[in-house]
Amino acid sequence: MAKNLLEQLREMTVVVADTGDIQAIETFKPRDATTNPSLITAAAQMPQYQDIVDDTLKGARNTLGNDATSAQVASLAFDRLAVSFGLKILDIIPGRVSTEVDARLSYNTEATITKGREIIAQYEAKGVSKDRVLIKIASTWEGIQAAAVLEKEGIHCNLTLLFGIHQAIACAENGITLISPFVGRILDWYKKDTGRDSYPAAEDPGVLSVTAVYNYYKKFGFKTEVMGASFRNVGEITELAGCDLLTIAPSLLSELQATEGDLPRKLDPAKAAQASIEKITMDKATFDKMHSENRMASDKLSEGILGFEKALEQLEELLAARLAKLENKQAEPA
Fold it and tell me: Given 23, 294, 308, 314, which residue has the most CB atoms within 10 angstroms?
């Protein structure tokens, strides 16, 4: 019986679910799962997850007491909600979940370190080993330095919003566990910048970017895992078959599962080892120079952080409204 594309992909790449939707994770049974503020905000508004939201709000109220304002309770609950979803996800998957540090801390090394430790402490308090959690941090220079400190403490990190080879090299040289280069967002930028409607999958700028990072890592023996992310179409995924991991939204997982045909391996460590690639040593001055010269990476990193910040603000507003509704209901006479 012919295998579908998803089955074939799983033979060479770890498939990760890019969602906060627990039902979707149950359906596709990935090894790992990733979340981000936008995904958690979307999941928190789904009727089937209101119990998770409500329990998190009640727990925050109990922690702070009745004298705390609704805004204070919502803020603490927001801090805990990603972990609440993460715990539910870890009940389903055998591997790791990625939980993101507040994007508003992306340029603050010390605050990111503190927040990373706090997230791990919340998981450990619920009996979850830190080996099953990846702390997700934006790939700013400051974020990478924070991740380097956490990695030395045995806290594994996933560096996200990664768009340029300079970010990838800095992560590898600092011993980061995993990176998430954003394929689709790179494509978005190039389409807008060039006015083109589309690119063939093999020429997709996001695909080419991840391929370059993968080959660099394998060529020079870096252990940091490459997890392609943010896909716009199945072609981007099939062109990266063989990548260490790919984190894929449920809609594209469905499409892969429904499609039959041959799926050749495109990324291969043996081929990468033979590639002619110049090694670059990364320090802050080199990083800053390469970042400023890469318009796409500069634009998309700033835009991505801003987008996650807006999602966080939306989530805080949603939680405050939900808390008011809960407490008004409790105050009603029986």
Answer: 308
